[in-house]
Amino acid sequence: MARVLTGIIAIPFVGGIAYYGSPLLFLVFVTTVALTAVHEYFNLIDRIGINGFPILGMVLSLLLLLSFYFDGRFMMEWGLVASVTLFGSWFLQESNVKIAIDQIAYTLFGVLYVAGLGGYYLLIRNFEGGGALILFLFLIVWLGDIAAYYGGKHFGKKALARTVSPKKTVEGSIAGLSGSLLAGYIVGVWFLDYIMMSHCLLVALLCGISGQFGDLAESLLKRHVGVKDSSNIIPGHGGVLDRIDSLLFAGPVFYCYFKFVL
């Protein structure tokens, strides 16, 4: 029930910001979500003895999102700043040289994993009709997640990836893809009638598949550190990273399809 009630409150709020909010408001929203998820990521790796550079990681995440907001025009500069500051931070603290690469690599990975993938939503929002496209993508992933959860719960028998996530099943995965395709059809008829239905269904399928890989990727991270959820900040849903794991992988696929195909 907590899961359902949270969804009833959160979905209209998030959808409203994506569809009706100004570009600046959407930037603030994406940044808030991403920085919270980055914070959860550093808490996770801390459980396996990797301290990383959480403050620097959040600063680099913010700068990376700002670069996406300006259509990626500062990516080269960001790469230089990230390289210099990451190595410089280790030299300044003079920590154990045997874990230096771990600290630097885990920090950079966290930034690219969350802000690097999440930043594509800012690029999608800059498309013509970007608000509708963001809502379309949200619905593809959300309906796919819901269908996968209940399909796996009631019909799941064969494990999908037992080593990474024992509870995920092939039947749940198929149900999830069916939910994503249904979302693609509904939204294609509802408010994206200027796009051919074949494109709506194909991008829904691709985002549904990539979203499930995103879910498994975060499951791998949590399995590695030995936790069930990234945090308990969202009642019934765990952490922010738990809620956006599918979206992180689906966003770049969605962006590339619309940019290079449509």
Furnish the topology, listing elements before pairings:
Layout: H1 2-20, H2 23-46, H3 54-69, H4 75-93, H5 100-118, H6 120-125, H7 130-155, E1 159-161, E2 165-169, H8 170-190, H9 197-225, H10 240-260
Antiparallel strand pairs: 1-2
Characteristics of this structure?
262 residues; mainly alpha; 10 helices; globular
Report on this structure.
- The chain is mainly alpha-helical and 262 residues long.
- Helix content is 76%, strand content 3%.
- It has ten helices and two strands, in the order H-H-H-H-H-H-H-E-E-H-H-H.
- It has a two-stranded antiparallel ribbon.
- Helix 1 packs antiparallel against helix 7 and helix 5 packs across helix 10.
- It is globular, with a radius of gyration of 19 Å.
- The mean pLDDT is 90.
Uncertain parts: none
Strand order of the largest sheet: 1-2
Beta content = under 5%
* H/E topology pattern: HHHHHHHEEHHH
How many angstroms does the end-to-end distance come to? 40 Å
* SS-derived structural category: mainly alpha
Quaternary state of this entry equals single chain
Brief description of this entry?
With 262 residues, the protein is mainly alpha-helical. It is 76% helix and 3% strand.
